[in-house]
Amino acid sequence: MAYIKEVFLVIKNWNNFLFPYEQALGELKIKLRGIRNEFIQFGKRSPIEFVTGRVKPVPSIKEKMTRRYISENRLPQDMEDIAGLRIMCPFVEDIYQVVDLLRKRTDINILEERDYVNKEKSSGYRSYHIVFEYPVEMTTGEHKILAEIQVRTLAMNFWATVEHSLNYKYNGVFPTELKNRLQQSAETAFKLDEGMSEIRDELIEKQSEYSKNNRDD
């Protein structure tokens, strides 16, 4: 597996090191948003609501390196979320449709999948994670980087965003009452997702019955 070639024991220029990740992020955001545009262009409902992405800030990279005991010369191989993308979906079932679409792509090489939608974390966190390898074409040749895509509903994203900000504030140590309330709110958010899916299915069924009755008339 050919990862970024110019990795030194001490990274002296972080901008140069992160450039391929920035390049990959820009390309992938355009490609993933293109999936949504294609559905809309052909008059279909898109399973993608919107796409966001970021390259992890250097202080966050260093903090994670310390926490996970990752050395700088192993950084490209051992830190899989330096470049991270999020795909937001309207409904839970859309998550798996998007995952299937990503599996069929030839421009990414999926290395690992983690389903936290049906098997949520103990905190209540839900999302579908995909770790993949992506080739970046540069003047010095092809550089393969690791990146991560998180696929989730809007409700899951709202909960995860709030939980992340609270986690930062409390440095990962939540009071028991707050921890329990967060878990309950995560379950409430998931029930909302399930409820919206049921409403959509009922509407589709009623529309189908209405169309059938009109044809019979």
From TrEMBL:
InterPro entries: GTP_Pyrophosphokinase, NT_sf, RelA_SpoT. CDD domains: NT_Rel-Spo_like. Residues 53-174 form the RelA/SpoT domain. Pathway: Purine metabolism; ppGpp biosynthesis; ppGpp from GTP: step 1/2. It comes from the Bacteria. This is GTP pyrophosphokinase family protein. It comes from Apilactobacillus apisilvae.
